[in-house]
């Protein structure tokens, strides 16, 4: 049976002294060999992440990377879903006042539009106050680095004459489709995000994407979504530069196409998480027993299954997943996040006896796993994923082929690239259906085709290793970014 995650650290507040948070000093973390002892270059960067796991993690990793280059770091964050400061004793954490309960009530994805409106309107003044205070301190602020979704902070940065750089947590390919409704409408195309097209036809200027791959969240409020997108695009165009958690070798052509619409400087310095040993940016407690369970299995024999921090499935879909896994006869490590099955707390809706007969023999179910370590484990042979960009990139970095079950947003695009462009996995084209699941698992874990996926992804993994070394593309882009910020 599986272990239970007991701590969900969603409501924790930082240990910062709120009355004088920026004077909080932290001793260096002795475990942090990469950043310890680096001389300060005397410049402070302020980071502002969006309060979702998939956005907080890369932002903290980016902050760590720039800290290793001599910058001091302040993380401006919401009280809800706040990062754990004890994992980053070399950073200063500054909570934005009043960002607990209201945000908590909006954090569900169905409220995403309201959340984005709220943070970009109601939170702009509290952020202005925080930044103003930081700028008056001795070391000032060299640059504000925000998630692209905090577009309201551009006007604050302009007022304070503070350079703003944006970080987009997806890859470039999916970003192009994310902004497509605005760019296509600007260019006079009739297509807008009000059209929920589900056809197999290619999207002109965005090949290989199909109509059905275009982001489709919020079909009930297309104009609201369009307005937010328009403001996001405007905020990005006004920013000094964009930072990407991807690497040139993977997306060179997409970068070229993107630069025509966004002529800002682009810094591709990913994969962020490979700069440091597995990081501690998880907002949930990771079940370390997963790794001992994997130790008992032969190389490439286990299918790791996780749909990230946000996806929720219907009970009927959950049962198809369970039976697909059961019928595949493949060992599996399955992350079932509490609350991720509609109407259930955790595993209650599994059929009687399922856990005893199926899971105990060859499966292990946890509430949250140390994913990067799981993917790096020799026993892990495949990853059934929701195709979030962090998960996709983490899988690429460990050479693990994928089965893709995207739900919304950039996941649809990532899945299309995995299956049709990079050819490092398969996409389940018909949602969750036990027969299709079973054959996809066989294809990836046992068939000749799976071997081809593995060879291709291992080849890309080699490019990752190269791009991070001295002279490699991400290494050089990071040097350029540092010099660019120092030139402000
Ligand atoms: N993750 C984790 N344990 C899990 C599942 C996910 O640590 O059991 C991490 C994963 O390593 C990744 C992040 O959560 O860094 C998920 O980000 P992604 O962009 O893939 O998806 P999102 O959660 O934003 O939908």
Automatic annotation (TrEMBL):
Keywords annotated in UniProt: Transferase
Polar residues composition-biased segments: 12-24
Protein's UniProt keywords contain Ion transport: no
Region Disordered, annotated ranges: 12-38
UniProt entry tagged with the keyword Plastid: no
Pfam families: UDPGT (PF00201)
GO cellular component, one term: cytoplasm
Origin superkingdom: Eukaryota
Alphabetical list of InterPro entries matching this protein: UDP_glucos_trans
GO terms, molecular function: quercetin 3-O-glucosyltransferase activity; quercetin 7-O-glucosyltransferase activity
Family that this chain belongs to: Belongs to the UDP-glycosyltransferase family.
PANTHER family the record matches: UDP-GLYCOSYLTRANSFERASE 72B1, UDP-GLYCOSYLTRANSFERASE 76B1-LIKE
Protein name: Putative UDP-glucuronosyl/UDP-glucosyltransferase
Organism: Helianthus annuus (Common sunflower)
